[in-house]
Design brief:
By secondary structure, the chain is an alpha/beta fold. The chain contains 17 helices and 24 strands. The protein folds into 4 domains: 1-39; 42-198, Alpha-D-Glucose-1,6-Bisphosphate, subunit A, domain 3 (Alpha-D-Glucose-1,6-Bisphosphate, Chain A, domain 3), CATH 3.40.120.10; 205-442, 3-Layer(aba) Sandwich (Alpha-D-Glucose-1,6-Bisphosphate, Chain A, domain 3); 444-567, TATA-Binding Protein. Its EC number is 5.4.2.-.
Length: 571
């Protein structure tokens, strides 16, 4: 074992760490040296969605000490930034193993530092935590969640006063504060007088706000059938009540997946991006002739939906399709109400569908494009108070309407999806038909995501080398079409490959590379900020003359993506 790694591990055998932790570390060193290396070779880092990792002992694991150190550093930072204020934080947690106990540890450390804590009494959706930060006028918020990661993971998301996740320069400043600490600096001795539990009475405010932002008094709700699955996660605590109060009485809950369970026993992955995760719901939808399936991830910030296609079969929409339909609906509502005067904007990300920009042009609003991660859309709202935010989304099944929550919100977005589909059905159409009509108007955009899992030290090196190769030996053609532009967000340079002219990219630096071809193909590559994966995002498009040509053109675009995937050796 590397000497430096061994030194890091031996530190955890000191009296700073409790007896149980010391025993676990000694067992790793004696019996599982490879696992010990993985646990101690680096410090767990903040990524796209906060800090996320495997639970266990070690500096590269989620445990009471790594999260305690985060919280101590954050407490110190808050005192420096707000020296004369009585500090307040809100803390929520999801269904994962140890989320409740880790949330209590975080609450203890904050209170030990004199910070007033509002701790949810039971598990709650992540968007409710974002709402709580603003509603309770807190200085920051924490949610213990690993979103849709496997059962062995947990995580720690940090939110700021606006209800959005931390972004530069705050994130770096907080990380520097955390890195300056020793584990012995953590104050674990809680002050119970500073910890206040919140629960059902607070849910009321969130439910009312969700309905106010996503209900449009559409007709036909009593004839609209919904199948809903929480995938063993937190949305079961809120979403059924939101749908009920909004007028949806025909909601079939997938009972086998309704009980919160960190093992996620009925799915391989509790991720609505994965078709397998919604198999149970889809089966029930066919049995009950439902109009829509809704599935949310464990912390209820992402949603997947399925609707009836042109042949009346249930079909899963991808995140790009969902965000396009939702954004179009909101734009239409704003237009009907005479609220669009050119001072509005919608939000999207650099790896999401270009069709969002086409929608913005059609309605004379701005489309702001940010990095991957919903914190960047929240930052758009914070940075531009002079503009009205209509809604925004990202391809990874996240959407937000209005700004009462400053993160992707599957609770409110689920209600919005129901409103859109119900209105369409009542008018003799369907959500799917409306999507195709949008393609006729703006062009058929077809997207696909391929994620390659590369675990451990060797996996991290492989991902790193892949990005190096794509930069040092850039592709010249893709599926026979010339590459005309390459955007490198790590160097903040956009290069025209025909003229050689370079322009500066204005968004913050990130390890993302995007290729554009002369025929409109867009391919993005980026290592995941929360999982051991490298992701490739494909977008191709073609004009669609009529709805009757949809299947034909879609097949052409699917075949094009297939060829590109094969060309890049991703299969």
């Amino acid at each position: 074992m590397d000497k430096e790694i061994l030194t890091r591990a031996n530190e955890w055998l000191s009296p700073t760490f409790d007896h149980e932790t010391q025993i676990a570390v000694k067992e790793l060193l004696d019996q599982k040296p490879e696992e010990a290396v993985e646990s101690f070779y680096k410090d767990l880092e903040f990524g796209t969605g906060g800090m996320r990792g495997v639970m266990g002992v070690g500096t590269n694991r989620i445990n009471k000490y790594t999260l305690g150190k985060n919280t101590q550093g954050l407490s110190n930072y808050l005192k420096n930034v707000y020296p004369d204020e009585a500090l307040k934080v809100a803390i929520a947690y999801d269904c994962r193993h140890n989320s409740d106990t880790l949330a209590r540890v975080v609450a203890d450390v904050f209170s030990a530092n004199g910070v007033q804590v509002f701790l949810f009494s039971e598990l709650r959706p992540t968007p409710e935590l974002s709402f709580a930060v603003k509603y309770l006028d807190c200085h920051c918020g924490i949610v213990l969640t690993a979103s849709h990661n496997p059962p062995e993971y947990n995580g720690y998301k940090v939110y700021w006063t606006d209800g959005g996740q931390i972004v530069p320069p705050q994130d770096a400043e907080i990380i520097n504060e955390i890195n300056s600490l020793k584990f012995s600096d953590i104050r674990f001795e809680s002050d119970a007088s500073l910890i206040q539990t919140i629960g059902e009475e607070f849910d009321e405010a969130f439910i009312e706000a969700s309905i106010a932002n996503a209900s449009f008094n559409v007709k036909g709700k009593d004839q609209f059938k919904i199948v809903f699955t929480s995938l063993h996660g937190t949305s079961i605590t809120i979403l059924p009540e939101v749908l009920k109060r909004a007028g949806y009485g025909n909601v079939h809950i997938v009972e086998a997946q309704a009980k919160p369970d960190g093992n996620f026993p009925t799915v391989k992955s509790p991720n609505p991006e994965e078709p397998e995760a919604l198999e149970m719901a889809l089966k029930i939808a066919e049995e009950t002739n439902a109009d829509m399936v809704i599935g949310t991830d464990p912390d209820s910030d992402r949603l997947g939906i399925a609707v009836r296609d042109l042949d009346n079969k249930m079909i899963l929409l991808n995140g790009n399709q969902t965000m396009v339909v939702m954004t179009h609906f909101l734009l239409e509502q704003w237009k009907k109400e005479g609220k669009i005067d050119g001072n509005e904007f919608i939000g999207s990300t650099i790896v999401s569908t270009p069709m969002m920009e086409r929608l913005a042009e059609a309605y004379n609003v701005e489309c702001k494009i940010g990095l991957t991660g919903f914190k960047w859309i929240a930052k758009m709202i914070k940075d531009h108070p002079e503009q009205d935010f209509i809604g925004g989304g990202e391809e990874s099944f996240g959407f937000m309407t209005g700004d009462f929550v400053r993160d992707k919100d599957a609770v409110t977005a689920s209600l919005l999806a129901c409103e859109i589909a119900t209105q369409a059905k009542a008018s003799g159409s369907s959500l799917y038909k409306q999507l195709i009509e949008l393609y006729v108007k703006h062009g058929l955009y077809k997207e696909r995501l391929i994620s390659l899992v590369r675990k451990g030290i060797s996996g991290a090196e492989e991902i790193k080398q892949t990005m190096i190769d794509l930069r040092q030996r850039p592709l010249e053609t893709i599926d026979g079409a010339k590459v005309v532009k390459i955007e490198d967000y790590q160097s903040s340079v956009s290069k025209n490959m025909i003229t050689g002219i370079e322009e500066a990219l204005t968004v913050p630096k990130s390890n993302v590379l995007i290729y554009y071809t002369e025929d409109g193909t867009k391919i993005a590559a980026r290592p995941s900020g929360t999982e051991p994966k490298i992701k490739f995002y494909f977008s191709v498009h073609q004009k669609l003359a009529s709805t009757t040509k949809f299947s034909e053109v879609e097949s052409v675009l699917e075949a094009k993506i297939d060829r590109i995937v094969k060309e890049l050796n991703l299969v």
